[in-house]
Amino acid sequence: MAERIDVAALIASARENARESHFGHMNPAFAKLVELIGVDRSYVRGEGQYLWDAQGNRILDCLAGYGALALGRAHPVVVDAISQCLTLAPPAWVRWELNPLAAEAARRLKLQCGGGVDRVFFTNSGTEAVEAAIKFARQHTGRPGLLAWSDSFHGLTCGALSINGNEDLRRGFGPLLPGAAIIEFGDLEALERALSSRTVAAVVVEPVQGKTLRSLAPGVLREAHALCKRYGTLLIADEIQTGAGRTGAFLAVHHDGVEPEIVVMAKALSGGFVPVGAVLVRSDVWDSTFSSMDRSVVHSSTFHEGPLAMVALIATLEVIVEDKLAARAAELGELLMRRLRAECAGIGSVREIRGKGLMIGIDLDTARIPSFANVPLLGRFTEPMIGQAAIMELLEAHSILAQTTGARRPLLKFMPPLVVNEADVEAIATATAATCRALGAGRFYGAMRSVAGNMVRSGLGLSPA
Ligand SMILES: Cc1ncc(COP(=O)(O)O)c(C=O)c1O
């Protein structure tokens, strides 16, 4: 007979064996990368915006699970709702029933999204939401084409990868979806040229790009949507990273007053506990796919609409709305931007600080940072190390966990939980300035050289996310 599992003991022994297990059973390339760049720590506790490591250090988490932890860790309202759900154990995945929790979750999510999106399809991830949106758009328009901006990121399954603006991520996985194309970010003339072929089902847009932290100039998204309408193309807003309050509005398209035909969300929707994504769709677009009883399950998924996911989503929405977290993201995001700009003024390694709400990036000027970044061939491998060196310093010297991303140049990215406070914001600003000053002074040159050397020898690239 199977015995009760002592989960605390399980976690402790798994932690002991993690290194060996990763190299033995999982992804040795990732394990090597994490070791090389020195970010692997043993995290033993998480609460709100903080993590604690085994040595008792408190770390401010500005990575937030790539944005999934908008409420921070272990939010009591979500923990309580999920615990109740586990105890009550409502029958899951009966399938031949009208799932009551899913319907309630859809009603509440629609209320926050507003605009013309009437119907909700739940998924288990962001990339699955993008895949569903592609199918809905193709079915509705009868066209194959898909467009996205350069440097875009919409997920890593084959459909989503077709509109990924990073050639490195696509290489070797083709042929991807026919009719998919990438156009230069914000180039409305190129957009119109492509749309005028009248073969494009949808344009897929991140209101703030996760890779570059760029957003379109005011009014450009609206113009792009008008062009889409003129040529019978749908606009899909990819709010997987920007949605649920992150940029200071529930949806980032709300800043522009744009009402896309399709909105995709995921990441923050469940408070970081249970995977959940959503596709919100205008009803006529929906009806094209689910056009009859015969075709009512023509798109579906075994695990979507699970009770834990639906309850976590409802609880998360409750916190976002009642605690006014979108307004908080706007206010603290503005403060962070102001403080970063003040602290980093005059630091040569900082090219630009940009973003929206609590989604902020520091674009580094690699030409002003002593490194191998400008050496032909070697630079391709070593330039990302500049960002990694900064991330290492932020963690080691300032106890801040952040991310390096970027499309053509490394960029430091801060996406803290929306529950951070003014003191956290101040800590991010001063630590970032100190780190960028040190980068410009070449303080990490030696570390970069040895890590870059290791990377070149082992033929590793850097994490895509
Ligand atoms: C804008 C955007 N779209 C899609 C995705 C893919 O989501 P997921 O990782 O849940 O598949 C991501 C993930 O980082 C994202 O940032």
Question: How do the helices and strands line up, and which of them pair or pack?
Answer:
Blueprint: H1 7-25, H2 28-36, E1 43-47, E2 50-53, E3 58-61, H3 64-67, H4 76-88, H5 100-113, E4 119-123, H6 126-141, E5 145-149, H7 158-162, H8 167-170, E6 180-183, H9 188-195, E7 200-205, H10 220-230, E8 234-238, E9 262-265, E10 277-281, H11 283-289, H12 307-322, H13 325-344, E11 350-356, E12 359-364, H14 378-398, E13 400-401, E14 403-405, E15 411-414, H15 422-440, H16 445-458
Parallel strand pairs: 3-13, 5-6, 5-7, 7-8, 8-9
Antiparallel strand pairs: 1-2, 2-3, 4-10, 9-10, 11-12, 12-15, 14-15
Helix pairs in contact: 1-2, 4-12, 5-12, 6-11, 9-10, 13-15, 14-15, 14-16
Question: Could you describe the 3D structure shown?
Answer:
The chain has 465 residues and is α/β, with parallel strands linked by helices. The protein has two domains: 26-56 and 325-458, Aspartate Aminotransferase, domain 1 (Alpha-Beta Complex), CATH 3.90.1150.10; 77-322, Type I PLP-dependent aspartate aminotransferase-like (Major domain) (Aspartate Aminotransferase, domain 2, 3-Layer(aba) Sandwich). It has 16 helices and 15 strands. The chain has helices at residues 7-25, 28-36, 64-67, 76-88, 100-113, 126-141, 158-162, 167-170, 188-195, 220-230, 283-289, 307-322, 325-344, 378-398, 422-440, 445-458, and strands spanning 43-47, 50-53, 58-61, 119-123, 145-149, 180-183, 200-205, 234-238, 262-265, 277-281, 350-356, 359-364, 400-401, 403-405, 411-414. The strands form three sheets. Strands 4-10-9-8-7-5-6 form a seven-stranded mixed sheet, with helices on both faces. A hairpin with a 2-residue loop joins strand 11 (350-356) and strand 12. Helix 13 runs parallel beside helix 15 (422-440) and helix 14 (378-398) crosses helix 16 (445-458). The longest helix is centred in the C-terminal third of the chain and has 21 residues, at 378-398. It starts with 6 loop residues before the first helix and ends in a 7-residue tail after the last helix. The relative contact order is 0.14. The model is unreliable at 461-465 (pLDDT under 50). Pyridoxal-5'-phosphate binds next to helix 6.
